[in-house]
Specification:
- The protein is α/β, with parallel strands linked by helices.
- The chain has two domains: 57 residues, Urease, subunit C, domain 1 (Roll), CATH 2.30.40; 126 residues, Roll (Diaminopimelate Epimerase, Chain A, domain 1).
- The protein has seven helices and eleven strands.
- The strands form three sheets. The chain has a four-stranded mixed β-sheet.
- Strand 4 and strand 5 form a beta hairpin.
């Protein structure tokens, strides 16, 4: 709330908004008074207008939301939701455990699947594995040899794919691989660079 003892020194006043204060006792207000890079007070439209210094700027937010800028957080809600339908490799402690988890899921899959159906998964993290090495397409082929498979790592910036997925994706030229040459060699690890992973993503069918 506005402090009656604060002088008219605000350089900017924003009103008519939905301002999230992060204060449990007063979580949502309509106006905020700012001086330079500091927030002077929050409260009602009229209360904050009273703090505006001569020559200051008044901004009508027209109902827009305002949140504190130091809260650095975001959620990939769409990808999280889609990931719930995929094979979860989060928490696997080795490549062997990851492959076993994939095989277990395939053994218990009740839906009719054919060789054109993409197998998707997520959550593996090489820092959790003793080898600290990226998995290879050949290793994934041992449990998924006949249909394309695509497994995002926990960061979402690398992908583990099998040979079938590589063949469907085709070979990227240097322009698409960012000058890294053939990013689709089925034996080495998939690149941690976004571009090859994104390229393979584009070869997958859209979710229904």
């Amino acid at each position: 709330m506005a402090n009656k003892e604060i002088p008219m020194s605000a350089t900017i006043v924003m009103t008519n908004g939905r301002i999230h204060t992060m204060d449990p006792a007063n979580p949502l207000v309509t106006a905020v008074a700012i001086r330079g890079s500091q927030i002077l007070a929050v409260g009602s439209d009229e209360g904050m207008k009273a703090l505006l210094a001569p020559g200051g700027e008044w901004i009508d937010l027209h109902g827009c939301a305002v949140t504190p800028g130091l809260i650095d957080a975001h959620v990939h809600f769409q990808w999280f939701s889609l990931g719930l339908q995929q094979i979860n490799l989060d928490g696997t402690r080795s490549l062997k455990e990851a492959l076993q988890r994939i095989q277990t899921r395939l053994n218990t899959e009740h839906r009719p699947l054919n060789t054109e159906t993409w197998l998707r998964g997520r959550g593996w993290r090489i820092d959790d594995w003793p080898s600290k090495a990226f998995p290879t397409a050949a290793q994934l082929d041992t449990v998924v040899p006949d249909r394309p498979a695509f497994f995002n790592d926990k960061s979402g910036h690398a992908a583990w794919v099998n040979s079938r997925a590589l063949r469907l994706a085709g070979n990227m030229g240097e322009s698409e691989a960012g000058g890294k040459g053939d990013a689709f060699d089925p034996q080495p690890a998939p690149s941690a660079d976004n571009r090859p992973a994104d390229h393979r993503n584009r070869r997958q069918p859209e979710y229904l």
